[in-house]
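We modelled the chain as a single entity of 387 amino acids. Its sequence is:
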Amino acid sequence: MDIQLGRGKTVRRAYGIDEIALVPGDRTVDPAVTDTRWTIGGIEREIPILASAMDGVVDVKMAVRLSQLGAIGVINLEGIQTRYEDPEPILDRIASVGPTEFVPLMQELYAVPVQEDLIRKRIAEVKSQGGIAAVSATPAGAAKFGSVVAEAGADLFFIQATVVSTDHIAPEGIEPLDLAAFCQSMPIPVILGNCVTYDVTMKLLKAGAAGILVGIGPGAACTSRGVLGVGIPQATAVSDCAAARDDYERETGRYVPIIADGGLITGGDICKCIACGADAVMIGSPFARAAEAPGRGFHWGMATPSPVLPRGTRIKVGTTGTLEQILRGPAQLDDGTHNFLGALKTSMGTLGAQTLKEMQQVSVVIAPSLLTEGKVYQKAQQLGMGK
């Protein structure tokens, strides 16, 4: 429903994940027989969760372990892992500085050029250990390193920017990356993002994307919404982009997964995103809390090192358990941040959804009080949902 913001502007209401709730249907399903499998670029995974391409979240070790556990970890090809032969001392420095020294340090550390040999090395290290080699770059990075990634034998290539589109106006003398031509030329599946609207999703699908990343600014360490004022809350964004996916499938017969990227902390968040139409989710800060994560208990945004306009910060997330406990359990915390797979399967069973496609069809209601109703003691004592 359109709302008149003022005489010169009509708007519509958009909803975030915290404002909705999922409604049980007329049947239930034993969680043991729910099926959470999904496919991206011809690769089938048991768990519809990807770890964000952030330097505090995924390195070679994390990518391999995530693959072993049934998920996917994406390595940032323009980060610490490809700028330094030995990233460990660099990560130690990032974790050790104070808040006021952090951004200048990041700008200094990320000014070191990306090395093509290290791109090849990181991909080879993941594959030699049996992991899925999923990597990410900006459009500019993709134009520069795409052939290196292909030659190195990566399995999936993510092109990510705060906002990506097929229609980009560049300064005179600079040729923008032709996403359609790039997707067609690459011998591996290319996933494009980020976007939040039906129209842009449809254009990216027609450009040949093997997956679409949805989300602008909701990430725990991202400040784009404050710096730029740009974004659409995830529940509405995912629903709009999923509608484009479904219309595109009806037109072409090709199904392309939608991945909700950012702003998801608990198992309930993941369940609600899939109910809004996502095929999978990409999360960062929950995995940054794993004992195996490279961030030493810290998490920072991909645009934090920008030399002119940082759009991310470093947050302290601590360490709460192993990657296996966070992803598959058993949970040792009561706030929904452990055992994401168990949460998804239990939610599906409660809602009567046996597959992810059925989960996408469950009823959703607007429920701003969902996380606060009756939780006065948890909030007062900072327990469970009150943390």
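As a brief sanity check on the tokenised model: The mean pLDDT is 94. Residues 234-252 form the longest helix (19 residues).
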